[in-house]
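Bumping my old thread because nobody answered last time. Still need a sequence for this structure:
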């Protein structure tokens, strides 16, 4: 439950303080990858224990969906991390989608 608390605090800080100017800061990358690693580890431990039965519960399917979206979000962050002005409009659209993925993590917390 302490991890959930830290995850909530991080998401609040993310929504308030992450801007286009500081989005490439290494601290954001470390936090994003760290939380993603913990969610992924949780998923792997459950799948190892429950095998294919893991996917029979809707809450587990939702958790899996969030893990996959987390990897997509990190991948999109990496792909759009360049400073090329030609990517600006597509990059802005991608960042809006990634913020939506981050908000979905809140739903996961309230499910618990």
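Sorry it took so long. Here it is:
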């Amino acid at each position: 439950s302490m991890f959930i608390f830290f995850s909530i605090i991080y998401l609040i800080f993310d929504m308030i303080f992450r801007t286009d100017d500081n989005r490439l800061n290494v601290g954001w990358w470390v936090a994003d990858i760290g939380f993603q690693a913990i969610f992924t580890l949780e998923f792997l431990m459950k799948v190892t224990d429950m095998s294919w039965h893991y996917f029979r519960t809707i809450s587990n399917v939702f958790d899996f969906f969030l893990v996959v979206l987390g990897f997509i979000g990190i991948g999109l962050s990496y792909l759009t991390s360049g400073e090329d002005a030609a990517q600006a409009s597509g990059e802005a659209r991608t960042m809006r989608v990634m913020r939506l993925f981050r908000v979905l993590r809140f739903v996961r917390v309230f499910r618990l």
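The CA atoms of residues 1 and 91 lie 35 Å apart. Let me know if any region looks off to you.
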